[in-house]
Amino acid sequence: MAALGRRRLRELRVAVVVASTLAVGISGALGYVYLHLNANIKTFSEVGVSRSRPPEATPATTAPGQPAAQPPINLLLIGSDTRAGGNVSLGGGFAVEGARSDTTILLHVSGDRKHAVGVSIPRDALVDVPACYANGGWLPAQTDVMFNSAFSEGNLPTGNPICTQNTVEAMSGIRIDHTMVIDFSGFAAMSRAVGGVTVCVPAVNSTYLEHAYGVTLDPGVQNLSGQAAVEYVRAREGFGDNSDIGRMKRQQAFLSALMKKMLDSGTLDNPVALYQLADAATKSLTVDSSLDSVSSLVSLGVQLKTVPLYNLEFVTTPWSYDGARVDLIQPDTDVLWSLLREDRTLEGQDASGGASATSGPTGSASAAPTASPGPSAASERMRLMALGEAGPSSSASTGTSPSAVASDEASAAGTTAGTPTPVPSGITQNIRRADSDPCSDLSYGN
Fold it and tell me: Where is the Cell envelope-related transcriptional attenuator domain (predicted)?
């Protein structure tokens, strides 16, 4: 019995040593992974953040005995067209200097963490850019200039994200919590890390695209990664009317498909796949200083993960053509910003998670934001006619934006099937949900 006891004691000691060794090895590996991912992260200087910013979002008031609501999160996503850092091979244009914002989306995650809205801002939209900081000094404010020029203020090799952030805050009245920038090579790397993304390529003038730009996208559903994925979200000419408006539709579709891929494939629950994605993401993104660690990025990701695809909505700011540029239609665009400021869905539903949140159908009278309603159909037509963009009774055949065309009598006057709502149809009729048909609404015009 004594010999048996000594043998069991030795076995127990061996087990303890093995377990301890494994624990040290695992913790060491995890520590290496953490330090490696942290070292990947690049941040940009926040010198130049506006001295006059919108107030921070606050959580909604909850009913007694209910969990406290969370404040909404406003995340600015910027796709840079910089050719610096090895991006020439993906973006082309060897003589292109500086950087512009190819894509800008303001992602609003509601306080209930069950809804999110992504607002695309046209790069050619004419806006006011506040004074911005670059190269050691402040540059003067500008009026009625292209939106993507904010990112190029100072002609910095990798862009000026703070100037874009200041511009979005000034135009929307929404305080940006976090700003992220991704370039061509980063986007390509992330699409490869998830094994490609299944998207639908609309009808395309492939001969023109291939000869002019070397783009060889074939119509139909296919899995794209790397350079092909970059081409899908960047290509304008050859699709529809060759506009940035159509390109934004495909960008929204791609992001929807990317989210679906990560959720359906179990990427977020697979340690190996998650590490590959995290490695690609941390190498790909340049972020503000509040996201300068893996733990900060993970914390943000956990909050984004809870939003189901059918509650992730995309929309473009209501717009109309102004020659080769784009005007933002008012008051429709201001109504859109007010929906986000009041933490509502694009249909007007309260998504704050507070005591007053509506549980009925979206767009109901009780869910109405306090912003002013959209223009009447008659007033909208008069405005467009003054701009030379609409005929006496309809603008549908003139190339005017769907935002303007959608302002029909029923919706723009504040009724939808008899239910009052102040949300203009230029918003409600141009929503793309992340679970939409991947082949629907992918180009504009022609």
Answer: 100-263
Q: Give domain status of residue 247, yes or no.
A: yes
Q: Under a CB-based contact definition with an 8 Å cutoff, are residues 334 and 422 in contact?
A: no
**Do 277 and 300 belong to one domain?**
yes
Q: Is residue 45 part of a domain?
A: no
Is the distance from CB of 235 to CB of 201 less than 8 angstroms? Answer: no
The band of 37, judged by pLDDT with boundaries at 50, 70 and 90, is: confident
The CATH number for 143's domain is 3.40.630.190
Same domain? 246 vs 383: no
pTM for the structure as a whole: 0.79
Q: Give the number of domains in the chain.
A: 2
pLDDT higher than 60, residue 399: no
Q: Which residue range is the domain that position 408 belongs to?
A: 332-353+369-429
Task: Give the bridge partners for 198, in sequence order.
Answer: 223
What digits encode the pLDDT tens for the residues 343-397?
A: 999 999 999 998 766 543 333 333 344 333 333 333 333 333 333 333 323 333 3
Return contacts of 275-279, CB within 8 angstroms, 24+ apart.
275/33, 276/193, 277/190, 277/193, 277/194, 278/37, 279/36, 279/37, 279/40, 279/193
Phi and psi for 210 in degrees, rounded to 5?
-65, -45
